[in-house]
Amino acid sequence: MTLRDRGLIAALSLALIALSGVTLASSLEPPQGNGGQPSELPRSRPYVEGVVGHATNASPFGARSPADKDLVALLFRGLVRLGPGNTIVPDLASSWDVNPSGSEWTFHLRPNLTWDDGAALTSDDVVFTVDALSDPNYTGPGAASWRSVTATAEDPLTVTLTLATPLGGFLQAATQPIAPAHLLGPVDPADLPNDPFGRAPVGSGPFRLTFLDSSKAILEAITATDAPPPDGGPNFATPPPTDSLGEAPRTPPPGSAVPYLSGIELLFYDDISGLETAWQRGILDAASGLSPGEATTLVTSAGATAQILRYPSTTLLAVDLDLRPARVEFRDPNVRKALLEAIPRDALVAGVLNGLGTRADSLVPPTSAMFSASTVKIVPYSVAAARAALTAAGWKVSGASWVPAGAKGPVTIEVLSPEETANPIAYATAQVVVSAWRAIGLDVQLTPLGAGELLGTRLHPGGFQAAVLPLAIGLDPDIYPLLASTQSRSGGSNASGLQDPSLDRLLEAARAPGTEAERAAAYETLETRLASEFYILPLAFRDEFAVVRDTVIGPTPRPVSGSGDRFWDVLTWRLADGR
Predict the structure, then answer these.
(1) What pLDDT is attached to residue 493?
(2) Strand pairing class (412-418; 466-472)
(3) What is the span of the domain harbouring residue 203?
(4) How far apart are the first and last CA of the chain?
(5) Whether residue 65 sits in one domain with residue 193
(6) Closest CA to 482 of 143, 15, 140, 5
(7) Half-sphere exposure (CA, 13 Å, Cβ side) for 478?
């Protein structure tokens, strides 16, 4: 089972749990005024964000670019959603139950849920979404991630998800956006990623899409016709006059939270120059899709009136090594450690990421509850120590490179990476790695490749030595897809080809259900093993980020797995200028 596969396939496509008792209202409602009364803030003008990039598909089944995923995050809802800190809170589901083995999760939907077109949102929509994602003919985002999950509608407001392999972090997967069965049910799963629905989606989120083309996307907020609940809550707009000849707009159920913002406009740009012009003219409230350097430059130009909001992400920049028995150069873990020792990771964070990231000392994100700081071994940067370690491992200098122990001649290491146009961060990281390994005397070549050739021709068949990749580890980390023996088969994410039954048992224990303390203990044991073997060389966790003016109030950074996750608290956002 590859649910929530955080391996390289999902990561490259991005580039090219304990149950929470926190309620949805408490995490998403805007601040209260004095005496527990609703804040007396008027609904603001639309929030305008400039995006370097374009959105072409706002369907959960077709969103591939970061801009696409941002739209999906604003237009659709999952059974649960991200809450403050590292919490998961109710969304479409008001509550859930799990059986003792962790194999069955039963979600209880909120009553009176509807889609933008007024159709009822029920458990049938959840069943449809899971069935589509698990269909072998479906090849869009999340393909194969749900292959071993089945969904059963117990009644219109109750749905049970059954896992062939119970996972401790399954609740994180339940943030998956739910799609409308009444509109997409007749579509063949193979056609879902490119269905016209992606250009005119019907969602269930706090905003509806009213316009989308190559230059912009316009979203309007869903309003409510009911008065605020007695215990307070977000502001509610007065409903517009009804049009007896028009289609009735969707309104949230009584008591639901709605945004302060009247709408959101995303303006798309081919490059930074057009966005900078709009920024200088004061058109934009925020900017995204920037490189780390571009974000810093934009903030510098704005002086004290803007800032970079950093969202620690679980995207790990790492070096994946071919660990098959025939690859003698990487057989010794001391050699693998030496290769990591030679890479200036702090300088990489400061340079390539321009400080918008964190040095990685483990495959587990440091923001995760499963991260064990006491177990992780810090490997400091040292050219001298790296060279000494190679010598101690039986390597010998020969001409322009080294001769590995057991090899007949000097080694040349080819480092693969995504092409610069597809993923400039990963490409620049690969350049740092190549330069660092050359500095210790190795003969190294960099080969950037398109995603198809990189994955299908080189990584999956094992036709490589080393590759610098962005790996999606996940908010609830799952290392199993990257290193488990079963995942080295065709289509799996274990590109290294590693076959280690004892490691497999540790990987399985770490992803198994249990209390947070039990899971943390299992991860600590796993991290102890990882810290001594260096199967994958962790370099840095990059941040998701956006530049925002100081008139934007409400966004609160938290750990995220993708760019769309930064809208987790969009219901609280407002604009201080009130225009």
Answers:
(1) 87
(2) parallel
(3) 48-232+246-267
(4) 51
(5) yes
(6) 5
(7) 32
Domain count, the chain: 2
Give the amino acid at 168: G
Paired with 357 in beta bridges are 542
Residue 301, token pair as written in the block: 């130009």
Q: Report d(CA 92, CA 179) in Å as an integer.
A: 12
Beta-carbon contacts of 134 under 8 Å, excluding residues fewer than 6 positions away, are 146, 147, 148, 149, 150
- DSSP class of 142: T
pLDDT at 142: 82
Count of CA atoms in the C-beta half-sphere (13 A) of 273: 1
User: What pLDDT, on the 0 to 100 scale, is given for residue 561?
Assistant: 93
d(Cα 545, Cα 144) in Å, to the nearest integer? 29
The length of the chain, given as a count of residues: 579
In a domain, 481, yes or no: yes
CA distances from 109 to 82, 113, 133 (A): 17, 8, 20
User: What tokens were used for 475?
Assistant: 């908010």
Q: Are residues 397 and 518 in the same domain?
A: yes
Phi, psi of 131 (to 5 degrees): -60, -40
- Report yes or no on whether pTM surpasses 0.85: yes
CA-to-CA dists, residue 367 to 86, 153, 364, 523, angstroms: 8, 35, 8, 14
The pLDDT value given to residue 144: 72
